[in-house]
Amino acid sequence: GVTFADDPHSVRPVTFSVAISLTPYEEQLWQFRRRMVLWFSILMLLLLATLAVLLRAVLAPVRRLEREIHEVEAGRKEVLGGGYPRELSGVARHLNALLIGQRKRLARYRDTLGNLAHSLKTPLAVMRSALSGTGESAQSAEAIGAEIDRISGIIEHQLKRAAASGGALLGQAPVAVAPIAADLRAALL
């Protein structure tokens, strides 16, 4: 505090009070807050835009992988392409191995079914010729003929099934089943 001495024996304390208006200070504080909100809003928008651009760039290989998988499913591509980042290259490699293995299994199934059809075709032809060459009764001839037709139907059904199931697998182009079945039917009959 400040003391005022007008008499050497008496000391009196004196208090000074200074007052100014707070309006300029409050206005300056309000402007500062408005500027801070504006700058933080701009910064937030810039960060969101940067994040959107970065996410688009980071997820581009995933979108490319998805497009290639759709092309494989549609039969326009045999395998997935390369050039993926390390995180996706293993996935693409394993999917390609799966596709190749699936194609090999499908080829084995079709070969086996084709071999079955061809191995049954000859005995059926022999039975037909033996049936037409012998003078057996009409009833036994009809029974044998019915069995031959039944075996032919089973073979045709199995071949159609094999051809139809081939189109449902990944990466297979559609197979026209009708001409194959018609050719097989003509060969068997």
UniProtKB/TrEMBL annotation:
GO terms for cellular component: plasma membrane. It is an enzyme of class 2 (transferase). It holds the Pfam family HisKA. The keyword Transferase applies. GO terms for molecular function: ATP binding; phosphorelay sensor kinase activity. The chain crosses the membrane at residues 36-59. The keyword 4Fe-4S does not apply. Its EC number is 2.7.13.3. It catalyses: ATP + protein L-histidine = ADP + protein N-phospho-L-histidine. Gene3D superfamilies: 1.10.287.130. Keywords: Kinase, Membrane, Phosphoprotein, Transferase, Transmembrane, Transmembrane helix, Two-component regulatory system. Residues 56-107 form the HAMP domain. This is histidine kinase. It comes from mine drainage metagenome.
